[in-house]
Model the fold of this input.
Amino acid sequence: MVRVKLIGEVLAPFFLVAAFEPIGLWFTAPIAFAIYLSFLKHQHRTILYSIYFAFTANLLILYWSGAYVGVLPWVALSLLQTLYFLPIGILARFSNNIPLLISSILVMEEVKARFPFGGFSWTRIAFSQINSPLASIVTIGGVLSLSFATLLLAYLLITKKKSVAYVLLSLSILPSLVSVIQDSSEEKSLRFTAIQGGTPSKGLDFNSRAMGVLNMHLAESYRSVKGDEDLIIWPENAIDIDPLENAIVREKINELIKRTNVPLLGGAVLSEGPTNAAMLFREDGSIGSIYIKRYLTPFGEYIPLRSISEFLSPYAERVDDFEPGQVLKIHSVSGSKVSSIICFEIINDGIVREAARSSGLMVVHTNSATFAGTAEGDQQLAITRLRALEHNREIVSISTTGPSAIITARGEVIKSLKDGEIGSLSGEALILLKISISDYLGGFAPVITLIISLLWALSSMRRKDNN
Done:
């Protein structure tokens, strides 16, 4: 029995890894945290085990981050993510109350979503749970509520005192029942063709042939666009030569629009700043709107602690510091409101919430060429599916190299393109008007979840004291 328990403790982080893509077994996350919480309750080396659990899991989940920049940045990112588990291990030295430890895990999930450098919440528990039967709780309580529900499952696996946990878990099932009968309240639909045009090369040098990337997306557009669409959609970095300054690039884009008579919404890099943008080119060749990416990727679009970063990886010297946008910009297409989310902005709760509140359709422009052949694209797509469910919005997620997908408001993929495939996705997206309860609650949603978890913890501690 002791040997089995030891094997379980060793395997716990690997169970957590299995919950994330490319494996995607949602039920292994509750198993992982059941083992982790059980160790914190019964063992003494809680800090050391927390380091082992978190570092091993993050190292494997985020292995794609070192695919082209080397081992040191990958290890550094994994260590940074591990730090969020240290307070939990320290707390366990003073209290082995599992509801309190669960509440502390939720607090740290929110901290890492915000700090440092604007947060990096890629490995939040909920982002592994899109296929969980409890996933619909995000429509009410947002991402943190799904993390809480997953930890409640873990609690039920290891405790005899299940009454309160059963009540809380029952509440988390209600949104799943409601979603079956909810009115999608669409006003109209929007026809589109999204282009996954590929890149001449993969890795960090994908944009060294920027004109080649543009030409590949033009070629696939000419093959795929029928002319009866309301919109052509291109991914992030499809236009990596500033069309506001380069007449040849602008003429190529205008020629596509003229021949198809369909406006284009595509990702572009603008020299002023520089900035990462999503631009709407209208049928007459004019620019309708420009959204500037607001949540920049640390170490990808700007370098914090540059001297240290350049020591860890020589690639840091090649990264220019982009400037963030300051305001949300909504694109008007055939009378419908369309919002752009650019790449890693999908993990930022506030940015996605604001986009959903202000538009009826969300487009995720992303460029996975930097991490081609790794799990990064699949993990991002899982996050995007959860966002669609959370915000009651259909999402068109389009990448330069894939994966790309058309996602319903229930988080289901109805069409997709694989990593490395060149092609297009054509469809008719519903323009949805109703906002979800989590969007209505806004920033209060995670606060409510934290309060509920803390009240549960205090109640558990009080009962223990009375006993």
Q: What stands out?
A: The chain has a mean pLDDT of 91. The longest strand covers residues 186-196. The CA atoms of residues 391 and 436 lie 5 Å apart. Residues 2-182+442-466 form one domain.
